[in-house]
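Sequence dictates fold. Below is an illustrative record:

_____
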Amino acid sequence: MRRLIPTLVIASFCITGSVASAQFDAVADGAKKAGTAAKDVGKATVETTKDAAKATEKGAKKVAGKTKNAVQTKYVCADGTTDQATVKDNACRDHGGVKTKTKQ
């Protein structure tokens, strides 16, 4: 009987320890999978953000080019120089105003 009790105690520790170890391994594997999934989501978010930034940049350049062409109007001033302005009233302010065309 003296040998039986210590043997049972040691056996119970071995069995319980292996179950706890198996549970810990399962938790560790789950954490690794969750970490990998989070990493993949992070990479996808970065790529999506880069694509959105490229699209925004492309759209901004396209609009800027068209806007630049739309506002660049060349006017002939009263003193013979030329000026570019968005509005006729702002053109040739320092040159005597915009030269008027005479009607024939």
Summary: Residues 26-71 form one domain.
